[in-house]
Design goal:
Elements lengths: L2 H7 L1 H8 L3 E9 L7 E15 L2 E8 L2 E10 L5 E9 L1 H8 L7 E10 L2 E8 L7 E6 L13 E4 L8 H6 L6
Antiparallel strand pairs: 1-5, 1-8, 1-9, 2-3, 2-6, 3-4, 4-5, 6-7, 7-8
Length: about 170
């Protein structure tokens, strides 16, 4: 059975699994220098097998590892949604990338500590060049966190900044 058929046959089961994990994050535009504060960085290329609003299936290659991620619909504020992720062999991720919708996200992710949290800062390339976004994952929607100096306007819940939307309507076209 091909990976594609496996994915289709088990899609509903995987959506069920999404209900078992929840991602809570806030997203911000970056307005200042952050690279000197980064303690790690990685190159990410990702595509979408499905970019339907409310249920995305993403294939990601992060440095030399692959991942399959399924995300459910966001809540009204855009802060929380279901997420399920599975690490794949690089060769499997490369194979699944061939099934993706047109468009690709290419970015470098920098990790920056601020207080007890880590901000993931994504610097985009290609059609999204010029866009830099920072996300912080939280334990609860009302959890306090220390904003680093490079944090600008909050864009949590603004679907234009979802990677699945940046693939369809890149930043350079706004």
């Amino acid at each position: 059975m091909s990976n594609y058929h496996f994915l289709i046959l088990n899609f509903q089961f995987l959506i069920y699994l999404c209900a078992m994990a929840q991602e809570i994050e806030r997203k911000f535009l970056v307005i200042g220098e952050f690279k000197s504060s980064a303690f790690a960085q990685s190159h990410i290329v990702q595509g979408y097998i499905s970019s339907a609003r409310g249920r995305t299936v993403r294939v990601r290659i992060r440095d030399d590892k692959g991942y399959l991620t399924i995300k459910g619909a966001s809540n009204a504020s855009g802060t929380s949604r279901y997420e399920w992720e599975k690490e794949l062999a690089l060769s499997e991720a490369e194979e699944l990338m061939r099934l993706c919708e047109p468009g690709i996200i290419d970015k470098t992710r920098y990790l920056v500590r601020s207080g007890k949290h880590v901000f993931e800062v994504d610097e985009f390339y290609g059609e999204n060049e010029g866009l830099i976004v920072a996300e912080v994952e939280l334990e609860s929607e009302d959890e306090a966190f220390v904003k680093p100096d490079f944090i600008g306007e909050e864009v949590t819940g603004d679907i234009r900044y979802y990677n699945s939307q940046l693939m369809k309507k890149p930043y350079k076209t706004w």
